[in-house]
Every structure is written in C-alpha cells, then in structure tokens.
TrEMBL record:
Listed Basic and acidic residues bias regions: 54-63
Annotated protein name in UniProt: Mos1 transposase HTH domain-containing protein
Domain of life: Eukaryota
InterPro entries listed in its UniProt record: Mos1_HTH, Transposase-MT_Hybrid
Mos1 transposase HTH domain ranges (all copies): 9-53
Region (Disordered): 54-78, 115-135
Organism: Aromia moschata
Gene3D superfamilies per UniProt: 1.10.10.1450
Length: 135
C-alpha cells in the first residue's frame, strides 16, 4: 500500500499529464487530503519535476554515508550484553561494542523497549514500570 505522501505524488503526476495547473492541483490535494496534504512548496516541487518529464515518484537518493551501526548483528550483540548484565550503561555498551552512544541508545529504545538509565535507577527498566524499592 502506498504511503499518503507517495499517493499524493502519483496524483500530482496524473494531474500534470491531464494538463492541470499548479493552483488547481494544489487546491484538489488540499481538499482531498486536508491536514495530511503535502506543503505548498512540496506540491510545487513535484509538479515542476513531473512537468519537466520526470517519471519516478520515489525520492532521489541522498548523498552521504548510510547508517551502518544499527545492523542486525549490532542489535544482537547489544541484546546479548544487556541480557548478561542489565546494569551496563549506554557508555559502557558503546565502548564494548564499538558503536556510537546515540546508536546504542536507539537500539535499546527501538529494539528492546528500554529507557536510558538515570542516576536513581541502576539498570534499564521496561517503560511504564516503576522501581518499587525507590519509594
């Protein structure tokens, strides 16, 4: 199923092929999609691209290095370490695994549903569960 954004791009392409003007296209998209409508600038950019002959509705590849830290291997490595010793800090996990601290935090949050540990909580805890011994 297409995302709402991709669906709108396909519609813009269709309207360009029908020969509609930008103003008409934007008004129709705004009426149909309401708050989920692409911004006026985005609609104009895609309208212009399709008018110039572009056929693809996908984004162009972006320059820069892709993320290589959040691989399945690193997620598994982090998971094993946490299962062995759940008191490990993000800094310690980053040093052991050789992964950036922010990537370790994202892995813990997204893959293991964990929050970062605070000064009063000596380990990671599941979201929504309070430490009874701190009361």
């Amino acid at each position: 199923m297409l995302s709402v954004q991709m669906e709108q791009r396909v519609n813009i392409k269709f309207f360009v092929k029908l020969g509609k003007t930008f103003t008409v296209v934007y008004a129709i998209l705004k009426e149909v999609y309401g708050n989920e409508c692409l911004s006026r600038t985005q609609v104009f950019e895609w309208f212009k691209r399709f008018k110039e002959g572009r056929e693809m509705t996908e984004d162009d590849p972006r320059p820069g290095r892709p993320s290589t830290s959040k691989t399945d291997e690193n997620v598994e490595k982090t998971g094993k370490l946490i299962r062995k010793d759940r008191r490990l800090s993000i800094r310690a996990l980053a040093e052991i695994t050789g992964i950036d601290k922010e990537c370790v935090r994202q892995i813990l949050h997204e893959s293991f549903n964990r929050q970062k540990n605070g000064a009063k909580t000596p380990h990671f805890q599941a979201k929504g569960i309070k430490n009874e011994h701190l009361r």
